[in-house]
Amino acid sequence: MRHARRVDDLSTSLTINIAEGNGRFSKLDHSKFVRTAEDAGTKLAAYLDLVEAASLMEVDAAKSYLREVMAMLGGLRGYLHTET
């Protein structure tokens, strides 16, 4: 149950930080939220591995979506870094 709570917390953090960052006009602020979202995504991937190892639920679809989101964040981070 503890892992499920962390998965929920981290996926919420990931989502909220992406939205918050995209609402910012300053590239510095936007970058800060993107970094926070990436950190949450990295931790989320680890917890999904733990959930899968404990056979608590099937996480293949979640991992696939997370890979896409993390790739988007990596591209966005690169864009924000080169624009400053």
Provide the descriptors you would attach to this structure in a database record.
84 residues, de novo design (two linked rop proteins), 3 helices, 0% strand, elongated
- What's the domain count? 1
CATH topology name, in short, is de novo design (two linked rop proteins)
How do the helices and strands follow one another from N- to C-terminus?
A: HHH
Count of separate DSSP helical elements = 3
Q: Helical percent range?
A: over 70%
> Unreliable runs, pLDDT <50, ≥5 residues?
none
Main sheet characteristics: none
Radius of gyration: 14 Å
Strand content: under 5%
Tell me the name of the CATH class.
Answer: Mainly Alpha
Give the termini distance in whole angstroms. Answer: 43 Å
Question: Structural class, from helix and strand content?
Answer: mainly alpha
Q: In one word, what is the shape?
A: elongated
CATH architecture annotation name: Up-down Bundle
> Could you state the CATH homologous superfamily?
23S rRNA-intervening sequence
The averaged pLDDT comes out at 90
Structure summary, number of beta strands: 0
Walk me through the structure.
By secondary structure, this protein is mainly α. It has one domain: de novo design (two linked rop proteins) (Up-down Bundle), CATH 1.20.1440.60. The N and C termini lie far apart (43 Å). The model has no long low-confidence stretch (mean pLDDT 90).
